Amino acid sequence: MTWVTGADGSPYGVTNLPYGVFRRNGGPSRIGVRIGSWVFDLAAAEAAELVLAAGTLCRPVLNDFMALGRPQWTAVRQRLTELLTDPAHRAAVEPLLVPLADVELLLPIEVADYVDFYSSEHHAANVGQIFRPGQPPLLPNWKHLPIGYHGRAGTVVVSGTPVTRPTGQRASAEGPVTGPSVRLDIEAEVGFVVGVPSALGDRVSVDDFAEHVFGVVLVNDWSARDIQAWEYQPLGPFLGKSFATSVSAWVTPLDALSDAFVPAPDQDPPVVDYLRDVPHLGLDLRLAVEWNGDQVSEPPFATMYWTPAQQLAHLTVNGASLRTGDLYASGTVSGPDRGQVGSFLELSWGGAEPVKVGDESRTFLNDGDTVTITATAPGPDGTTIALGEVSGTVRPAR
Amino acid sequence: MTWVTGADGSPYGVTNLPYGVFRRNGGPSRIGVRIGSWVFDLAAAEAAELVLAAGTLCRPVLNDFMALGRPQWTAVRQRLTELLTDPAHRAAVEPLLVPLADVELLLPIEVADYVDFYSSEHHAANVGQIFRPGQPPLLPNWKHLPIGYHGRAGTVVVSGTPVTRPTGQRASAEGPVTGPSVRLDIEAEVGFVVGVPSALGDRVSVDDFAEHVFGVVLVNDWSARDIQAWEYQPLGPFLGKSFATSVSAWVTPLDALSDAFVPAPDQDPPVVDYLRDVPHLGLDLRLAVEWNGDQVSEPPFATMYWTPAQQLAHLTVNGASLRTGDLYASGTVSGPDRGQVGSFLELSWGGAEPVKVGDESRTFLNDGDTVTITATAPGPDGTTIALGEVSGTVRPAR
């Protein structure tokens, strides 16, 4: 129970408390935590010594706070809970609550490296069937390691940022042509944000996931399928992805997701030692994809084959170091049914089966289209928490 | 002619003047410029108002200086030349020269995004013949666009940093096994460092290369071929590369390379509009690869099919923004002859033809091996300039 007006019963109640960065009237960037339809100004709270985090809450992004580590993350969360539930603090805290409607939300982290995995079996199999019909849907390595690649950290943008349709080369019967992408797509994903770094040469064990990972964002990994198809052999996706990757403004701390961990799908064949996570847990995040306001899909994150702990262990098994602000995304989240897929490539089955969006028919994205991805999860104490949203509108190519 | 003792006639004479970051006795990081076997302490020089660059020479990395742009880069270089050639300045400048032997060289830039291209036709064809014998050596897209992918910026390390042999999965007849890489390789490359950023959604034209690119580093893109071979389908190299990428400590400014631009190889078929660079110029950089002190190869950068201006235009044709500190590397530099290849995969033809290194026979790297890549180029006024070195010694897997 919180004393904050309207917050109890909301999916942004006191069991959620996601972190973000906001500003008012073009002022400086400030760290805040969301409660109901308010943002609690943590820069002001730390300045007033209502909460202490070594000054890191007065910075313009979450990175320094995230670098403090789990004991401090937990202590700050406990203190925030106390401030927002004990009516004794109301007089001090209430003036620091800013209406959400009055703020602009900014990119909450400075992204160090961005890695994108490919960890949904249903998605990988769908893509295999669409592009390699008649062949085994999964490549031989897929069940032995979480396939991933590096994306462009500098073009990670916050929800709400317009996405300009990319230009590039695509194959045609007459040879390559250059022009605006004609197969612009989304990928609904979940991203994990690293707080605590690791040293070059060290490996992070599956057991140390929660020591390094601060929290979760929603991700839309915009994808130009025609550019990607022409460029990706042999070194993988490049310009088909690097024009924009959108993330939610709110970073949900792992502490808010303690009731969302559920057994992940069995893995057969058995995985090699460094990927063996006991318990083998995924997250029961229920995504929803809206296309121009119509809900077109409900991707279930709990169906992901590879867990975030396995992804982190894989990412570092070669001794690659982690930095604060590293972001790794799950890959497109697709469940077994057509109504559960996380890309329009799958929803329209490679463009062959248009879908109804409002009164129109669609395969890939038109200029002016808006896609919004949201998610909910079981929260502490029987609550349901929301993970913000990642939204973007397509602008015409320049 | 410089008044600096021993610098005239050296490949680090006054026509070179590469930038770096150094420290003495574990002290703070300082920007310096190399002249002969000295480092001119530019932090001290700017503090003494001998040279002015908006305070950016007092920072711990080159990024803020690189963000100033070409007019300021040129003005600072002209001023440094004046200080180091006019004997009237000797009394003021000489106390700021530090013997190179007394300093530790550090990573000169904070790397934003790291992109690696694949732009040597000889290298791509060699790799094709080794891995796909009997098939066309180049994939259909190769001559239409400069193939590239994103690497891990957080594991870019400065020359001299030991490289720990990575552990990972590789394929075997009995299925995947995990262990230290048994095919650890190098890739001799040239890297281009972006100074001036671009806005999201904008494209950088081939004509604007010199407005954005500050200078050049040598790169060793260490590669675990066995890890790479198992993981790279379908999303490209990941852990086979991400454990370490070494760069030279010295960033050679483009202004020092004005006499090194030479016509690049003809491109057939003709390239699409946004890749058409007139004049089509590469750089006459002559690399040398030493393996435990034995020179084993002399890769000629002038043979690269795609030019750095084309790479930059391609990188941004989809609207991807540039940040100060972005680093893009050429891909392995290989000439037409076996003695000109930039990887040991090629030198040993896939491991089938061991090479003599000292008194020993080698295919890939053993623990304790040291690889050093150097380069020279025609400098201004008939001089020859050196581009520093990128060196690393292999440590056993942990």
TrEMBL record, chains A, B:
Pathway: Amino-acid degradation; L-phenylalanine degradation; acetoacetate and fumarate from L-phenylalanine: step 6/6
This enzyme's EC code(s): 3.7.1.2
Top-level taxon of origin: Bacteria
InterPro entries: Fumarylacetoacetase (IPR005959), Fumarylacetoacetase-like_C (IPR011234), Fumarylacetoacetase_C_sf (IPR036663), Fumarylacetoacetase_N (IPR015377), Fumarylacetoacetase_N_sf (IPR036462)
Span of domain Fumarylacetoacetase-like C-terminal: 115-381
Cofactor: Ca(2+); Mg(2+)
GO terms, molecular function: fumarylacetoacetase activity
SUPFAM superfamilies with a match to the protein in the record: FAH, Fumarylacetoacetate hydrolase, FAH, N-terminal domain
Pfam short name (any one): FAA_hydrolase_N
Record carries keyword Magnesium: yes
Domain named Fumarylacetoacetase N-terminal: residues: 16-108
Entry keywords, A to Z: Calcium, Hydrolase, Magnesium, Metal-binding, Phenylalanine catabolism, Tyrosine catabolism
PANTHER family hit by this protein: FUMARYLACETOACETASE
Protein's UniProt name: fumarylacetoacetase
Gene (name only): fahA
